[in-house]
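F.,

This is the one I mentioned.
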């Protein structure tokens, strides 16, 4: 944990999903968002675990996607650290407000870490939630999204080394 909301530029930043469960949670989410932009901004808004400890009431947290701290540790083949990170979030949010998140969107890395995420959830006694990253509304929106990404990054659609999102990152129906 860092003692300042922004930490220093050399430290890694990870994804974390926060949801407001009530009005107090909404107020804390707004407070954390403001803090992230005012004091933690370094290329993107950021907060640290000390801020989460202070302003976590009414918030639900999930371990997030492959960009989350738990998954990042698993991708580095560091299962011990992944468990320790999950335990830290469990300590901050408690067993009723922290969930391990799994996703299946056609990425080998997700298929690799999902069984380990299930084990962590079982070992810690926390809930497991299946989610989907959503970057565009329908599967058909993948191509326009890809073009917009090229425009924003000043890249050509023919550039094979450019950022390209998987086509499965659309909003899935309940079915």
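My design for it:
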């Amino acid at each position: 944990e860092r003692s300042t909301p922004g930490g220093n530029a050399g430290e890694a930043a990870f994804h974390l999903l926060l949801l407001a469960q009530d009005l107090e949670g909404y107020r804390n989410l707004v407070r954390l968002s403001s803090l992230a932009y005012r004091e933690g901004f370094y290329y993107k808004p950021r907060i640290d675990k000390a801020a989460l400890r202070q302003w976590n009431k009414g918030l639900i947290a999930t371990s997030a996607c492959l960009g989350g701290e738990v998954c990042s540790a698993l991708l580095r083949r560091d299962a011990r650290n992944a468990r320790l990170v999950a335990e830290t979030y469990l300590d901050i949010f408690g067993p009723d407000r922290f969930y391990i998140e799994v996703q299946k969107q056609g990425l080998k890395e997700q298929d690799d870490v999902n069984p380990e995420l299930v084990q962590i959830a079982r070992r810690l006694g926390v809930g497991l939630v299946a989610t989907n990253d959503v970057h565009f509304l329908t599967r058909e929106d993948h191509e326009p999204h890809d073009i917009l990404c090229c425009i924003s990054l000043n890249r050509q659609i023919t550039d094979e080394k450019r950022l390209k999102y998987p086509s499965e990152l659309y909003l899935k129906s309940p079915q």
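The two ends are 40 Å apart (CA to CA).

Talk soon.
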